Amino acid sequence: MLTPLARNGLIIAAFIVIADLTTKAAATAMLDYGEANVVLPFFNLTLLHNTGAAFSFLSEGAGWQRWLFISLAVVISGVLVVWLTRLKRHETWLGIALAFVLGGAVGNLYDRVVHGYVVDFFHFHWAGYHFPAFNVADSFITVGAIMLLLDLFISGEQGDSGSQQKGNRQ
Questions:
Q1: Backbone angles phi, psi at 43, to 5 degrees
Q2: What is the full per-residue pLDDT of the chain (170 aa) written as tens digits?
Q3: Which run of H or E residues covers position 47?
Q4: Which of 20, 32, 120, 160 is catalytic?
Q5: pTM score
Q6: Active-site residue flag, 20
């Protein structure tokens, strides 16, 4: 039986997957591949296909990277689901962070399995520098990872201060 925190985390992840796949389908239907559609002076909607990982890492591979990234996403998603089910009631922040990463990972996993690439379309640029295109799933993975790091630092500081206080009492 799932705890309320785990259930809510899985619901959040499902909404992220739906939002991600919906926006990717809309981008694919409405945008021409590789054509920049200017939204703001520093932001375009540009449909791109990424066969690599973040920042197109390993995108020049001969196709083996697809199976590597699919395998990694399956394993990571499984670990995140198990982690979610083991959270304590008070670990809401951590649960949301895990749900964000899980939802994003599953959204991109779907693309890799079905298309062989991840659909990207958010494209920021400034003064001739172009940030690699990304999507809704990537955004949630990034925010979730930042939340995980913050949780690590915050809980680490609390753990350190707790052990120092304990040591001072003796």
A1: -140, 130
A2: 889 999 999 999 999 999 999 999 999 999 999 999 999 999 999 999 988 665 555 555 556 677 888 999 999 999 999 999 999 999 999 999 999 999 999 999 999 999 999 999 999 999 999 999 999 999 999 999 999 999 998 876 665 544 344 444 44
A3: strand 43-50
A4: 120
A5: 0.85
A6: no
**What's the distance, CA 102 to chain centroid?**
7
- C-beta neighbour count of 119 within 10 angstroms: 25
Amino acid present at 134: F
Closest CA to 88 of 147, 5, 10: 5
Query: For this structure, is 120 an active site residue?
Result: yes
Spatial strand order in the sheet of 43-50: 37-40, 43-50, 118-126, 129-130
Q: What are phi and psi of 3, to 5 degrees?
A: -75, 160
Catalytic option among 20, 32, 138, 160: 138
Q: What Cα–Cα distance (Å) separates residue 12 from each residue in 73, 106, 138?
A: 18, 12, 15
